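User: Second chain of the day. Same drill as before.
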Amino acid sequence: MPDSAGPAPLMIDVLLVDDHELVRTGVRGLLERHGEPAGIRVAGEAASGEQALELLPRLRPDVILMDLNMPGLGGLETTRRVLAADPRVKVIVLTVQDEGPYPRWLLDSGAAGYLTKGCPVEELIHAVTTAMRGDRHVSPRFHEQLDAQALPPGPLERLSPRERQILLLLVRGLRQQEIAAELGVNVKTVSTYKARLREKLGCESDMDLLRLAMEQGITRSHSPVHP
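Assistant: Same format as last time:
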């Protein structure tokens, strides 16, 4: 007798990327308990952006749940590299960060969603299924912020991706030589970008740059970005 149930639904394979094992374990447990009816399963975990990029060609996830604040590449740069390597992947940022330019920068870079780690599991599942339909989901608390950013751009919105990245590395406290090593460029290149930053933002010194960045919601805990 033929099976009347029909073919099994396609599963949505999710890769969890977070440097905290406890967070990954918690999200995995939630998805295993509540995601099955929506066809969601956890395909793997990564503790860093670098590890996520290594796993990408082997696991070929449909969706990546990406932490923002991680050592090394950080969630924003990892998002850029993931989408460059495999544009079909949907990246949803899952973070505690709810201030600053990050939602806009991530959406500009191609992220399919932006959620806080305090969101209900139903919203997380909705974000995953929405991403697979080709749409974006942003936590309601960010809509007002994004609407405000649709107004004439603030000073940070005028920066190029590389200028943003240099600024965030400065905020992290890296010296010029360390920034050059992090980016794989020479010190003179970093100096040139810093001069451009000061000119664009109307700052006379690195201290002025740091002060402006923090006024705009960027703090030392955040990772580098290259949208």
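The chain has two domains: 12-149, 155-215.

User: Great, on to the next one.
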